[in-house]
Amino acid sequence: MPRIVVTGIGAVTPLGNAFSESWEAAKTGQSGLRPVSKFNASSLKWKVAGELYGFDAGPFFSEKEMLRLDPFVQYAVAASIMAAEDAGLVQRLPEGTGSISLKKDQSEQTDYVATGGVIIGSSRGGISTMERELHRMQHAKTAMQRPRLSPYLMPSSTISMASSAAAQKLGIKGHCLGISNACASGTNAIGEAFRLLKAGFRGPVLAGGSEAPLCRICIGGYGTAGALSKKTDASASRPFDINRDGFVLSEGACIMVLEHYESARSRGARIYGEIAGYGNTSDAYHMTRPDPSGEAAAIQEALGEAKMLPDEIEYVNTHGTATKLGDRAEALALQKVFGKRGSVIPASAAKSATGHLLAASGALETAFALMTLREGIIPPTINIAHQDPDCDLNIITEKKHGDITTAISNSFGFGGVNAVLVLKRL
Fold first, then answer.
1. Active-site residue 183, yes or no?
2. Number of CB atoms found within 10 A of residue 71's CB
3. Mean pLDDT of the residues in the chain
């Protein structure tokens, strides 16, 4: 059977503008959550977010491109280029104009990249650009002064533009797909890339998620739905804590390079770990209320594809959003699959530090889980003062060292969509 491995990771997150920065911050228990600064949130009840700080799109785009492309596309492209660099597939050569050229080492590798694929997920796509354009139209004093809509509004805001723009920048002319499956989108993108490669696609495939939802309509919308925390400091995201009151909305992107083990070995690539199984299920139950049975089914499907038993899993990267219903449902799902071991297996919740990056969260958390396998370090889940007794899990709250070789990473979303990956150390 084909073995599929990860050879490159790129990310821009509230914890850092490179994946290495984000991982180092996560290991030391830093928080990326701060008061909303992208717009005046004084009239809203929800005032904390996970924003990118100091992100510069200039090294990846021309000035015209930055004006035309929604931030979720910019984040996706930046993370994709960094992932391709990290995998040793390309070399970025800054030209001082905001644009880039890509230098490949040899013609064979050029062909390998060109015939590869890109699969990127996003839940909200270009919603901030849509809001900006509507705001411009609505606040014109007269019809005569009303500006026309940007001709780039539609292409810039479509979900698939993240994949298309990344493919354009990297010269990838093979498989190209945008996925929108709520908060599971990034994990689904990685899972579908895994399945594509297993089916015989040559690769490589860049896969992950990207989001830029920090606008009034998103924060107001999620808040009105009862999903967001009303706390006003960096401790607002409290997965599995008895006093949790919702998630904190964040922005960013994480993309990874997947390829066949043989291809990675033949070109001497560094291997972060192996994707061994993928589960994708639907609760078929409720628009917003999760069903533990559907989540458990996704975990079991992923284990089945990996040909592994629950007893072989040594670490759980939880979805852990810090919503009352969501955390309890996930805890029940893990108990259903792992039985008594569900309260013993080390588990963590990255959203305590990053907030909820929607589609990008699953990709980033998969990357963190791969680093846990590689370095033997479980980052702490922060902000837990008193763990909810109804969430009977072994949540790690202090940085923990250990010899960990296998893991699962969970992602669940509105509509009862569930995506789970099984990861192995090589």
1. yes
2. 25
3. 93
Is residue 356 annotated as a catalytic residue, yes or no? yes
> Does the CA dihedral 169-175-177-183 come out positive or negative?
negative
DSSP 344: T
Q: Has this prediction a pTM greater than 0.85?
A: yes
Dihedral sign for Cα atoms in the order 228, 76, 51, 19: positive
* Spatial distance between the Cα atoms of 81 and 99, rounded to a whole number of angstroms: 12
Q: Specify whether the CB–CB gap between 311 and 228 falls below 8 A.
A: no
Do the Cβ atoms of 67 and 267 come closer than 8 Å?
no
Q: Is 286 part of the annotated catalytic residue set?
A: no
Is 327 in contact with 241 (CB distance < 8 Å)? no
pLDDT digits (tens, 9 = 90+) for 25-64: 999 999 999 999 999 999 999 999 999 999 999 999 988 9
The pair of structure tokens assigned to 204 is 């490589």
* 7 three-class SS: strand
| Percent of the residues in the chain that have a pLDDT greater than 90, as a whole number | 86
- What does the block give as tokens for 52? 């990118």
Catalytic one of 176, 183, 218, 254: 183
Please identify which of the residues 215, 260, 319, 391 carries the catalytic annotation.
319
